[in-house]
Design brief:
This is Asparagine synthetase B. With about 425 residues, this protein is of the alpha+beta class. It has two domains: about 110 residues, Alpha-Beta Plaits; about 300 residues, Class I glutamine amidotransferase (GATase) domain (Rossmann fold), CATH 3.40.50.880. The protein is built from 14 helices and 15 strands. The strands form two sheets. Strands 6, 7, 8, 9, 10, 11, 12, 13, 14 and 15 form a ten-stranded mixed β-sheet that branches. A five-stranded antiparallel β-sheet has the order 4-1-3-2-5, with helices on both faces. Helix 5 links the parallel strand 6 and strand 7. The protein starts with a helix and ends in an 11-residue tail after the last helix.
């Protein structure tokens, strides 16, 4: 069959038109009613980045929705992971982006370019507690590498963009578990293993070894790394940095007496987030300092049914970083306890952002700051879906909490390093 030149041109234009109509994007909504599995939606976004797709994070639009190119494998992956998605035309996608760009809207588009390499600081072997971050990373199918003291001290942190610290004591006091668990087999074994590891690495005391690890992590952040800490890793990390060259451990922890009047030797200039705190000297008290408010919660001053914290609202266009970290389908998040539950507002340095607070008792739950070229986020509490998680309790089944606002805050931090760096306006 022969075609004239004009017929060929018409055919080509027709095929181009068909392709233009077919051009489409996948929108993953993240509002309360629009998404059946918020947590796995982050996993889809991370997966898309590993496949080379660029993803737009639509801040303050439909709960912090994700927009990515349409492809059969993207749709299939969403279906496999039970993530709600919408296929929209490129014209609709352009219209959404134009709406978000409007100066009258508190919205912004952030381009996610590359899946960050994730490290989780955790000891080898099973612990008598679980870790909310590793649980949600596993549930969302986001890969991570476990590292511990040997890897940190040999500068292997440089291989990763994002580091998580959870249930860890950087002060060398074994979590201050002595009072309640000193005769428990797991406590005895952990102390023995920690002492053996410190000796292997050339340190005479666990406290000295842990402080060396904390300093390496500090340098990693200063050099441009992102650090996310929860529970006891938050205040114990800062305390360890502030006690450099000072013995704050009693004999049952390190075999000799603490320094006389060690409180006066604490250097708050060395910390990331906290200031003016008083250390807890009593080894029988399950607390590091007066930064934490767990004791008030334990006394019932804050009842579980009333325990919520509020996420702050920021200008998406002027403050995209805290806006990213606070993306959620609700501004009111259920509180939850931990060895370190929350931070007294007056103990937080003025240059640190309080992104989540409980105004009833003046405590911060979720804070963020900059150190050198890097950034850190501290999140109080142990498990966002288990109010008072105790040692030995069974881990939370995240299939029962696929839309957890508390766990979403963790995953905001996981994706945060993927964002294309913009020149900050503030």
């Amino acid at each position: 069959m022969n075609f004239s030149k004009s017929s060929c041109k018409i055919l080509i234009l027709f095929l181009v038109a068909i392709n233009f109509v077919k051009a489409s994007s996948v929108l993953i909504p993240m509002e309360a009613e629009g998404q059946q599995n918020h947590l796995k939606a982050y996993g889809i976004t991370y997966w898309a980045l590993t496949k080379g797709y660029k993803v737009n994070w639509l801040l303050n639009y439909r709960g912090g929705a994700f927009l990515m190119p349409d492809a059969d494998e993207v749709r299939k992956e969403c279906q496999i992971r039970s993530v709600t998605f919408e296929v929209i035309s490129d014209a609709t996608a352009t219209s959404i982006l134009e709406e978000i760009a409007s100066p009258s809207q508190n919205t912004e588009t952030v381009l996610l370019e590359k899946a960050p390499k994730i490290a989780v600081y955790t000891p080898k072997g099973k612990q008598p507690w679980d870790d909310a971050v590793t649980m949600v990373l596993t549930y969302a199918e986001i890969p991570y590498t476990e590292i511990y003291d040997e890897e940190v001290l040999s500068d292997q942190l440089l291989m990763y963009e994002w580091l998580h610290l959870h249930h860890e004591d950087f002060t060398g006091q074994y979590g201050k578990f002595f009072g309640a668990y000193r005769n428990a087999p797991w406590y005895i074994e952990q102390k023995k293993e920690a002492e053996a590891l410190a000796a292997k690495l050339g340190f005479s005391k666990v406290a000295e070894e842990k402080r060396a690890v904390a300093i390496k992590i500090r340098d990693y952040v200063i050099g441009g790394g992102f650090m996310f800490a929860m529970c006891s890793a938050t205040d114990s990390f800062d305390i360890a940095l502030s006690a450099e060259g000072v013995d704050i451990c009693e004999p049952m922890f390190d075999g000799d007496n603490s320094d006389a009047n060690y409180q006066s030797k604490i250097d708050y200039n060395n910390t990331f987030a906290f200031k003016d705190y008083i250390l807890e000297r009593n080894p029988m008290v399950y607390e590091f300092s007066d930064i934490d408010t767990t004791e008030e919660h334990g006394k019932g001053a804050m009842k579980m049914e009333n325990d919520y914290f509020t996420l702050m609202e920021y200008s998406a266009k002027w403050d995209p970083i805290p806006t990213m970290l606070c993306q959620n389908h609700t501004q009111l998040v259920k509180g939850f306890m931990g060895q370190t539950t929350a931070f007294r507002a007056e103990k937080i340095k003025s240059n640190v952002l309080v992104m989540g607070e409980c105004k009833i008792n003046g405590e911060a739950r979720y804070i963020h700051g900059t150190k050198g070229k890097g950034m850190f986020t501290y999140y109080g509490g142990h498990d966002p879906e288990d109010y008072q998680h105790r040692v030995g309790d069974a881990p939370t089944v995240l299939d029962l909490h696929p839309n957890s606002p508390g766990y979403r805050l963790i995953l905001n931090n996981v994706l945060f390093p993927a964002a294309k760096k913009k020149k900050l306006k503030t």
